Amino acid sequence: MKIAVFPGDGIGPEVTAQALRVLEALPLKVSLLEGDVGGIAYKRHGHPLPEETLVAAREADAILFGAVGDFDCDHLERHLRPEQAILGLRRELNLFANLRPAKVFEGLEHTSALKPEIAGAIDLLIVRELNGDVYFGEKGMRKTDAGLREGYDIMSYDEGEVRRIAIAGFEAAQKRRGRLCSVDKANVLETSQLWRDVVIETHADYPDVELTHMYVDNAAMQLVKNPGQFDVVVTGNLFGDILSDQASMCVGSIGLLASASLGERKTEYGTFGLYEPIHGSAPDIAGKGIANPMATVLSLAELLRHSLGQEELAQRVENAVAKALADGIRGGDLGGDSNCAEIGDAILTRL
Ligand code: NAD
Ligand code: IPM
Ligand code: MN
Q1: Are 86 and 53 in contact (CB under 8 A)?
Q2: pLDDT category, 77, cuts 50, 70, 90?
Q3: Model pLDDT, residue 196
Q4: Does residue 110 belong to any structural domain of this protein?
Q5: Domain boundary among 216, 250, 284
Q6: pLDDT at residue 340 in the model
Q7: In total, how many domains does the chain have?
Q8: Binding site membership of 87 for ligand 2 (Cβ less than 6 Å)
Q9: Active-site option among 70, 184, 241, 333
Q10: What are phi and psi of 85, to 5 degrees?
Q11: Which residue has the least CA distance to atom 32 on ligand 1?
Q12: Residue 126 near residue 169, CB atoms below 8 Å
């Protein structure tokens, strides 16, 4: 089994190191392919996603990704900025389905930004489209007729793109509690109207799933008011990005939310995928050794599950994280004082 490891920038290397300690402790034979991504890759190779990194990505059964983002690079032309590494990998590797689960861990009901009885009911999965939307449409800067600078980004989805993510949403709902909520802005956007039409058409193949629709502004409100109502949420790239950061604070911290980005390619052991915490490089705490690595360790669990076919090991890793939290282990993001390596130790002990 080959895993490509791309730690990236800021806290990326810190949290990835802890996930690798967990991986090494498992009874699995894996070889690691390392690669530079993001600002560090730009500084070393002149590009955020160097060719050799892409080669390693294609050779692997799965990718473990830390985070990218470096304020020093924010003045660069867009195609050279660190974020292009993750956008490029998602797009080049056709990883269109991004699964972002959010569940309250036992003992964390009081750490959520919500009231404990509301937070305690959270067990949802955001299925975020990852290859289209306003992220990948034509974009640029131009001048208006009046001579004003104007920035633009085209939002669009074709029906094929919507259908394949709708299928991912329905299939995820079938494996869970059988409810799918499609989130869009069909009252204003044509892109969303097509989205809604295609989701409804696709529903015909999944009569056992209960389908509802919600506008994204209401969804943001409902996520705080009564998040327990959601099972699977399927939504576009931009809305999914925003709602998943919001969901992280509903369960307690962005340092807890993992993700799996999947496409159609199968490997010898499962589905090829990229696994990363939903958070970024956190420049404000980078280098201090205080980041919470749990989101990355939980992303490793998703990797074991989807790409390596190791459901049992995935659950062992998840249980070790849950046990550490239940035992009161907390990073600074959860109001505690355990540092990154200590959280890694705590997970390993319980593993
Ligand atoms: P961020 O997620 O990096 O940080 C937001 C806040 O959450 C910060 O206060 C940070 O300290 C905290 N935080 C994040 N992860 C944490 C962890 N594991 N433990 C404890 N605290 C944590 O978002 P941002 O500040 O908006 O962006 C910083 C950089 O990261 C930007 O360059 C952005 O483009 C990039 N980014 C990258 C990814 C990615 O690689 N997939 C995701 C989001 C943002
Ligand atoms: C995420 C991040 C990325 C996104 C950025 C870094 C391109 O915010 O993975 O959630 O917007 O998808
Ligand atoms: Mn994001």
Answers
A1: no
A2: very high
A3: 98
A4: no
A5: 250
A6: 98
A7: 2
A8: yes
A9: 241
A10: -65, -50
A11: 69
A12: no
